[in-house]
UniProtKB/TrEMBL annotation:
Membrane-spanning parts: none
Listed InterPro entries: 6hp_glycosidase-like_sf (IPR012341), Glyco_hydro_47 (IPR001382), Glycosyl_Hydrolase_47 (IPR050749), PFD_beta-like (IPR002777), Prefoldin (IPR009053), Seven-hairpin_glycosidases (IPR036026)
Listed SUPFAM superfamilies: Prefoldin (SSF46579), Seven-hairpin glycosidases (SSF48225)
Keyword annotations: Calcium, Disulfide bond, Glycosidase, Hydrolase, Metal-binding
Pathway(s): Protein modification; protein glycosylation
Cofactors required: Ca(2+)
EC number assigned by the record: 3.2.1.-
Broad enzyme group: hydrolase
Name of this chain's protein: alpha-1,2-Mannosidase
Disulphide linkage map: 519-562
PANTHER family: ENDOPLASMIC RETICULUM MANNOSYL-OLIGOSACCHARIDE 1,2-ALPHA-MANNOSIDASE, MANNOSYL-OLIGOSACCHARIDE ALPHA-1,2-MANNOSIDASE-RELATED
GO biological process: carbohydrate metabolic process; protein folding; response to cold
Length: 662
């Protein structure tokens, strides 16, 4: 019996099926059993096979029991039907319209059971919902779950104050999403206390006092050591370069180290340093101020001008400020008036930074000798720099009686008051030409830190002087609310409260990076909450508002974070400086002095250091001997070459003489 060709082959319908439910696109030449009636073709029937299941309906083409010569394909031809060449009758097993050649392959028991359970009808029903659609639906459900659900592990990060007022405000954002938890890089944790020091934490008050007293003494010894190195190698310069043992003027050449260290020496009771520094200041600083060139307004104000004002304040013993502070005042013969006169001389030249600017924002650099100023190379000033001049200039006006210093400096804060802010937070750059903030980078670290610090400190300073500048306190309160709302988070996994950054403004992403300079904030928050008095007095006078209580709680948490960072890290850094950066003077057997600077040969004891010195000397001596031998060999070769040249010249002269005679 010849194979029957469906008339729709001529129409090239790739979705058509034959009368026996096989796809028309592949036409087998197998015969239809006579005992089985043929059905009329249903041209409207929907194809039930998916493209990736087409191998299930092609048994005649891939059956291993048929030789290649017995296979024949009839493909669709858009120009009309192709002739079908009759072939031999296929085996009876090849005539099954539901034939699946998978039956010839070995199947596992699990597959046999699943195929028995999943009937043909169920497969056809499920085939309408493709695997891709199912996976897409599954992904959408998963994303919906991740977005709508927060991690319950960190829901406790919402901090409530346990106060009588039952403050309901929150300064830590609730929860951390699972995605953030997965992708967040774990922080580097501070070192843990060793067991012996961990026990000291719970020891008696007297033991802790002795522990910290010993550390205080070591810090003072380090200060004295640093001063001695500076005095011996760089006296009069701004800074000491310890490796090269020479000085450098990186801050304008006003002897910044001398002036800036003076108040520290007074507070520590290092009178010998004070008596060494004061004569230099009296004799040299005036000439430096009159003849030196460019200085930075901010650095010179906080280091040199601030150092002079601090020395004046501490040396003259203002009533009610020094006698109760516990600072050892044993100075005799130090005239405090010289510090005030020098401060006025310097400040008069620094004021040109305000006068030269077209706005209330001063230029960043001042040329001292010609009373001129100019902006930084990029034309911008740091917000912290222009707003960290007021304490010094205000105090100078107070003790000198001249209001011009206060007037110029306070115009900066008055101008910033009128500028737009993000919940009291400001970018870290400002233009002295336009008077506007530049960029969107918001942080409490470098270039932004002391703006917030000076808001509350200048308010307290002026309040005590009789000037009520309430707008400063309002700016401070607004800024601290913005800090709690936008910048405060908790670390994972230790749960330390920290203050992050907004590099691209409030609409950008949050950066979980806390600059070490942000550790000024706990003290500033405590100072603002108590309005410059003790916490006990503030509570007795009922001055603490709900915001103040919340700020005090935040101050405690941030102080804990900074304490965890600096308690061991800071002390280990200090010990490393002590161990590796001091200069050792070691004597060898020939009483020659060898100065070893840095971490190369600093060891636990002097004997080991001497042994290392001897080894290095022996190595250097051996290298010198080897070099001497090499040089001697080179000289011998050169001498032999010279002798050969001389002999050759003599022969040439002899030959020339013989030619002339002949």
């Amino acid at each position: 019996m010849d194979a029957t060709v469906d008339p729709r082959i001529a129409n090239s319908d790739p979705t058509a099926v034959s009368a026996d439910r096989r796809p028309i696109g592949w036409l087998s030449t197998s015969t239809v059993p006579e005992s089985r009636p043929t059905r009329a073709p249903n041209y409207n029937a929907r194809p039930r096979s998916s493209p990736f299941l087409c191998f299930l309906v092609l048994p005649p083409l891939f059956s291993p029991s048929i030789s290649p010569s017995e296979r024949q394909e009839v493909r669709l031809n858009p120009n009309g039907p192709l002739p079908v060449k009759p072939s031999t009758t296929l085996p009876h097993s090849m005539q099954d319209i539901h034939y699946d050649n998978a039956k010839f392959r070995r199947r596992s028991p699990f597959k046999v059971i699943t195929q028995a359970l999943v009937t043909s009808h169920i497969r056809y029903c499920c085939r309408g919902c493709s695997t891709g659609k199912f996976l897409m639906l599954l992904m959408i459900l998963g994303l919906t779950y991740l977005i709508t659900h927060k991690s319950s592990d960190h829901s406790a990060s919402n901090i409530h104050l346990n106060s009588a007022a039952n403050v309901g405000h929150k300064y830590v954002k609730e929860g951390v999403s699972i995605i953030d938890k997965i992708w967040r890089k774990p922080p580097r944790l501070p070192p843990q206390l060793p067991p012996d020091e961990a026990q000291n934490v719970s020891s008696s008050f007297e033991e802790q006092r002795l522990h910290w007293f010993s550390r205080k003494q070591k810090v003072k010894e380090a200060f004295v050591h640093a001063w001695s190195g500076y005095k011996n190698h760089a006296m009069g310069y701004d800074e000491l370069m310890p490796l090269s043992q020479r000085g450098t003027d990186g801050l304008g050449g006003l002897g910044a180290t001398i002036v800036d260290s003076l108040d520290t020496a007074i507070i520590m009771g290092a009178d010998e340093i004070v008596y060494e520094a004061v004569p230099w200041i009296e004799k040299q600083l005036v000439e430096r101020i009159e003849k030196k060139g460019q200085v930075n307004l901010f650095e010179t104000t906080i280091r040199v001008l601030g150092g002079l004002l601090s020395a004046y304040h501490l040396s003259r013993g203002d009533k009610g400020t020094i006698s109760d502070s516990g600072i050892p005042m044993t100075l005799k013969g130090v005239k405090s008036e010289i510090f005030l006169e020098l401060a006025k001389t310097l400040a008069d030249r620094l004021l040109c930074a305000f006068a030269s600017s077209p706005t209330s924002i001063p230029f960043s650099d001042v040329v001292l000798h010609d009373h001129s100023a100019h902006p930084a190379p990029d034309g911008l000033s740091s917000t912290a720099e222009v707003s960290t001049l007021q304490l010094e200039f205000n105090y100078l006006s107070e003790i000198s009686g001249d209001p011009k210093y206060r007037s110029k400096a306070m115009k900066v804060l008055e101008h910033i008051r009128s500028l737009p802010k993000v919940e009291g937070l400001v970018p870290i750059h400002i233009s002295p030409h336009s008077g506007q903030f530049n960029g969107e980078n918001i942080r409490l670290g470098s270039r932004g830190d002391s703006y917030y610090e000076y808001l509350i400190k200048v308010w307290i300073q002026q309040k005590n002087s009789g000037n009520q500048l309430n707008y400063l306190y309002q700016m401070y309160e607004e800024a601290m609310r913005g800090v709690r709302h936008l910048l405060v988070r908790k670390s994972i996994p230790k749960g330390l409260v920290f203050v992050g950054e907004l590099p691209h403004g409030s609409n950008g992403s949050f950066s979980p990076k806390m600059d070490h300079l942000v550790c000024f904030l706990p003290g500033t928050l405590a100072l603002g909450a108590t309005k410059g008095i003790t916490k006990k007095k503030a509570i007795e006078r009922n001055l603490l508002t709900p915001d103040d209580l919340e700020n005090l709680k935040l101050a405690e948490d941030l102080a804990k974070t900074c304490f965890e960072i600096y308690r061991e890290w800071g002390w280990q850094i200090f010990e490393a400086f002590e161990k590796y950066t001091k200069e050792l003077e070691l004597l060898n057997e020939n009483s020659n002095v060898y100065k070893l600077i840095g971490p190369v040969l600093v060891k636990q004891d002097l004997a080991e250091a001497n042994a290392n010195v001897r080894k290095r000397i022996e190595y250097i001596s051996a290298e010198l001997k080897r070099l001497d031998g090499t040089l001697k060999e080179s000289e011998d070769k050169q001498n032999s070459k010279k002798e050969s040249v001389l002999q050759l010249q003599q022969k040439i002269q002899t030959l020339q003489a013989g030619k002339s005679k002949s």
